[in-house]
Write a structure and sequence with these properties.
Blueprint lengths: L1 H9 L33 H5 L3 H6 L12 H11 L5 H5 L3 H10 L3 H13 L6 H14 L12 H20 L5 H13 L3 H13 L7 H14 L2 H12 L1
Helix pairs in contact: 6-7, 6-8, 7-8, 8-9, 8-10, 10-11, 10-12, 11-12, 12-13
Length: about 240
């Protein structure tokens, strides 16, 4: 109040407060609160039109699915199933039959079809031999540290694999990378460590058949199953190089 009185005395036009005014004579000034700025109004586009996110979350706002006639729906389903019926539409071939039999787990029937294929004078390709070798490998029982000896079935299947490989060499079938990979997998599952490393070393000497990730994975699996950890480090060094 003293400061207010001093300001009032200094004003030539304001002498309402006497020099002897006390605190009781001072009038408390009401507190004036600044008016808050009005909130900005949202654009009309945001208010009237829901976003795509809102449409996707609220099923009531989702657009209705277009009507599709039953004839077109049936045709669409038939087109999706068409790849499974190529053989029925175009006619069965020996490679397709062998592939189907192996996919169904019918390995003896696949070899019967393979024998009939050769009797009919059709030359098997490398893909056919690879399918049969892979079928034999899948039917084998893996040799491990706990079961170091292959069972009778695995020994028989491994002998069939060796026969297929010898037949490929006799017929001078042109092999590819997959041929070596399937051979290596079969040797690894049968516990033939030396044969598997012989194939692996052969692939390292052929630029067109250099080992890929599948080859190294098969070698690691073989070494881990048979306890050949030192050989696994050799494979790792080759992979790093």
């Amino acid at each position: 109040c003293d400061a207010l009185q001093t300001l009032v005395r200094s004003d030539a036009h304001s002498a309402s407060l006497p020099p002897s005014a006390t605190d009781a004579d001072c009038v408390a000034l009401p507190e004036v609160k600044p008016e808050a700025d009005p909130e900005p109004s949202a654009p009309a586009a945001l208010v009237c039109q829901p976003s795509r996110f809102m449409l996707s979350r609220d099923p009531r706002l989702a657009p209705a699915q277009p009507y599709v006639p039953s004839v077109l729906r049936g045709f669409s389903q038939w087109m999706r199933q068409l790849p499974d019926h190529w053989d029925e539409l175009l006619g069965h071939t020996y490679p397709s039959l062998i592939h189907k039999l192996l996919r169904d787990g019918a390995l003896p029937e696949a070899f019967d079809c393979f024998a009939e294929m050769k009797e009919e004078g059709e030359k098997p390709t490398a893909a056919v031999y690879e399918m049969l070798i892979r079928g034999c490998a899948l039917a084998m029982q893996r040799v491990t540290v706990r079961a170091p000896e292959a069972d009778v079935l695995t020994q028989h299947l491994y002998a069939r694999v060796l026969g297929l490989w010898a037949e490929m060499r006799e017929r001078k079938v042109r092999v590819d990378r997959f041929t070596y990979i399937e051979l290596l997998r079969a040797c690894g599952k049968a516990g033939q460590v030396r044969a598997a490393f012989a194939i692996f070393d052969k692939m390292l000497t052929l630029p067109q058949f250099l080992p890929d990730s599948r080859t190294f994975d098969s070698m690691y699996e073989l070494c881990n199953a048979t306890g050949e950890h030192e050989h696994a480090f050799e494979v790792f060094r080759e992979q790093q190089e």
